[in-house]
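Researcher: Please predict.
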Amino acid sequence: MSRILAEITPDDHDATLTRARSGDDAAFTALVAPLRSELHAHCYRMLGSPHDADDALQEALLRAWRSLPRFEGRSSLRTWLYTVATRTCLDLATGRGRRALPVDLGPASEHAVPGGVAADHVRWLGPYPDAALAAGPAAPDARYEQREAVELAFVAALQHLPGNQRAALLLFDVLGFTAAEIAAMTGASAGSVNSALARARRVVAERVPARSQQQALRTLGDARLREVAAGYATALENGDADALVALLTEDVTWSMPPLPHWYAGRDAVLDFARAMPLGSCGAWRHVPVAANGQPAVANYLRAGDTGPYLPWSITVLTVRDGRIAELVSFLDDTLFPTFGLPATR
């Protein structure tokens, strides 16, 4: 629990809530501050985009501020804010549709596709910076740890669920709310919540590995993990195909949203790498980051012989048995401020 929340005694909380209900903006901010990070992460899990999570949280807090005089205290403030945030996300998801990765759209390409055109009609999944995750353990009844619940495979699987199933799974398995609480939060019956939860679990089980990335990374160890991420970055900077291929599993995949093409298998990935990032793109510089509870690298590119290295992509690595099993390079320079990264390198 955050230091700010720990400092608010029950009496202080009640007094602050009373001031907030009377229109004291500073009091409302103080009440919400300890919960912002976890609410933002919840919005990301629901919507699959850090930018959409920003929009959803801003809208949810505005709705909460306007509705606060009607908050009767029948549930905790935290539960009520999750109710508002979840309903806001469901409204946004209905209007914006689900997020996707290239692997959701079609088969892998066997050979490099130079000069690919961005599929701007697709709403792409985005990466989530680990720095934005709330500190502390998950609720006792939750099935997933916080980092497991933002892993790319998990968040991508959630996008295949209808909104009510997505909400039920996240509220129950990630946040530890009961079926009765979720029913009250979403305006459904407890029976329909349990039914939605069962269906959601089946879909997610089919789409995520049996062994989470967190389990794999704990087995690997931090030192080896840093070596893998640094090896990937160094191979690109040096244009070293042999060094890159030595880091990859046989069944590795590489995708680059918003480009629709993706590659599966070491040969296809290497063909792409030689044609593009190791060949014609330009010169690279890299900064290690962490995204979705996984190692990641911020890629900066200089197209010519001189000038600054500019933001190009955030590449999230999925690691298995000490090698890279999946690379997802999000080609979106607007993500760099989200990760607290500089505009040039």
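Model: The mean pLDDT is 93.
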